Automatic annotation (TrEMBL):
InterPro entries in the record: Thioredoxin, Thioredoxin-like_sf, Thioredoxin_CS, Thioredoxin_domain
Name this protein carries in UniProt: Thioredoxin
NCBIfam families, A to Z: thioredoxin
A Pfam entry, by short name: Thioredoxin
GO cellular component, one term: cytosol
GO molecular function: protein-disulfide reductase activity
SUPFAM superfamilies attached to this UniProt entry: Thioredoxin-like (SSF52833)
Domain Thioredoxin: start-end pairs: 2-105
Family under the similarity heading: Belongs to the thioredoxin family.
Entry annotated with the keyword Electron transport: yes
Keywords: Disulfide bond, Electron transport, Redox-active center, Transport
Amino acid sequence: MATTELTATTFEQTVVDNDIVLVDFWASWCGPCRQFAPVYDKASEAYPEIVFGKVDTEAEQALAGAAQITSIPTLMAFKKGHLVFSQPGALPQDALTQVIDAVVALDVDAALAEAEHAGHSHGQPDEG
């Protein structure tokens, strides 16, 4: 599966509707973003069950602001609608694969329950 262009309109729905969503925040003028693009595209073909989204921070400035993007490229990973990974910088192929495998292996329900049990919950009610 190829990458999917995400916009302010489709971003939240995509994250909520899919088990795992990776998001690459990029811009056309950004050299490291252009270097990371083929690495990201290649990974999207290796993991067809995962949604690989891309957000053009120039076209989607409000979305990039809402996501608190301060440098690009920034890779975010969502699992079951929860942000589980966020890191700026262009990752090499093996590092990207490690991130993807870790997200796939992560038991997000157990992690959330553990965080809640430890009192780290910020008391944000479920939307929806």
